[in-house]
Amino acid sequence: MKWEPQRFDDEPNTPPKPKAPHGPSLPFFPPPKTDYLAIIARVLNIIVNILIIIFILMLMSGIQVFEQSLEKKEVNEISWAADKQFKVDPNKNPKKLKDFLGYQDIKNELQKYVEAVNPNNPINPNLPRGILLHGPPGTGKTHLAKCLAGSVYQHAPFFITTGSDFVEKYVGVGASRVRSLFNTAKITAQNKGQKYFFIFIDEIDAVGQKRLNDENKNQEQTNTLTALLAEIDGFVSSDQTPQAILIAATNRMDMLDNALVREGRLGNHILLDLPDLESTKKLLQETIVVPQGNTLDFDTIAKVIHGVHFSPAKIMALANETKEVAKKNNTQNITAEYIYEAMERVLMGQEKTSNRNEEEIKRVAIHELGHAILAKTLGFDVHRVTTKARGKAGGYTIFFPHTDTKLPIKIDLIKQIIIALGGRAAEEIFYNKDDISLGCGNDLEKADNIATQMVVNYGMSLKDDMKGLSPLKNTIDDEAKNKINDIITESYKIAKKILEKYKNNEDSKSKWQELQNTLTDLSKGTLNQNNFENIPAEQIKIENNNITVN
Prior knowledge:
Elements: H1 36-83, H2 104-116, E1 130-134, H3 141-152, E2 158-162, H4 173-191, E3 196-202, H5 219-233, E4 243-250, H6 258-261, E5 268-271, H7 277-287, H8 298-307, H9 312-328, H10 336-348, H11 358-377, E6 380-386, E7 396-401, H12 410-420, H13 422-430, H14 441-457, H15 478-504, H16 506-520, E8 526-528, E9 540-543, E10 546-549
Parallel strand pairs: 1-4, 1-5, 2-3, 3-4
Antiparallel strand pairs: 6-7, 6-8, 9-10
Helix pairs in contact: 1-4, 4-5, 7-8, 7-9, 9-10, 11-12, 11-13, 11-16, 12-14, 12-15, 13-15, 14-15
């Protein structure tokens, strides 16, 4: 075997073995850096384009939904207005104007609207198209409107709503409903070929209040009122167009905007005040069901009920309470005493049965006799005096002027103040100045209110001048305060003087004790007008800035 020497590439001084070529030689470039900002920009651009497409699609869909909601809202408003039309139960006869008790002059005023809707009569161009029924609560304004509706509904559509129906939290709803109501009523009349349509808005003060200088505080109410005024002004006098007659009712005419109650709008103002004596009698006769053979002196009862200023609503409550009193006594007969007990329930509330000590009852008896004796001596009719507790009162006295008058004079108001202070005066006489009860608080408040009204609103005082008069500002300056204090102080002196005279007289002293014993007797505890006969009258007058009594 032939031996050959071995070579190693890493031996020193040995040249490297040439490598075989692999192709042409190229210049070297480093790898490019990643541009993250550009990537982000491209992604954002894609996202933005997608959002734009989505927005366009949603906008197109939203327009369709909005249009549908507008159509639905319009349908709902028309449906709402249609539901307000006066409808008659086919099984019942509707109440008509002739069924509204009392207030004959007002019924005569509204009768011309009943005649106007008669298809045989031409349109009356002078017929007032706006009526405002106003007056204290419970006088039957809403009931009167419904009686009018029952009288005209066969010849003219009658729509009934309330001011609160136009007050919503959503902007524009009130104004929209006003327009919808008038338009629906007009179309209803047109379809039936009728000349008039009626719209009655009860409690219109909810939407017709006086507008503020800063209208932004209640912009929605302002917009609704503006829409209502526009519809009223839109009444067109034409034989082809049904004529709108707007009737509104409110307890607070002073709160209404002047633009609403002026002539040409709600310019025909009809006051429903508390019923007069004759209307009170008719209401009592119609509402209190008296069994056959049971007779009542409604003339006397009406005088009492009228004297305590009962509204028709209270008379209705009185009739219901009278039934309850008769039922409690296990009888169907109705007596005057039952009616008077029911009257006290309506006025004062249910009788309290809680036990009271004899000293408290005696104090109440003295207090109430102070009111009653003064009322009788000054010419008032004393109807009821009792120590029975009702409501917040431990006892009470019911009295009223012998002659009903709408225009009391200064001496009449002075008499009311003297009577109001009679309870406190009696307690001071029979006890002492430092032993007067808290039961005098309401009496003092009443006396102060009357005296304040005299001085501030009517310019009446014990002096001949009218200093302190401020009916518009309704403020009380020092001059007025002094005059008010003089009236109350002088009235209190007269109250004490009359009661002390009555107490110290031998004949009247025994009469007082007799009345007091009756009031403190728990089995009785009540006096009526018969107990106050033969009590001498006293005459008072104003002389030299003082009140005197003969």
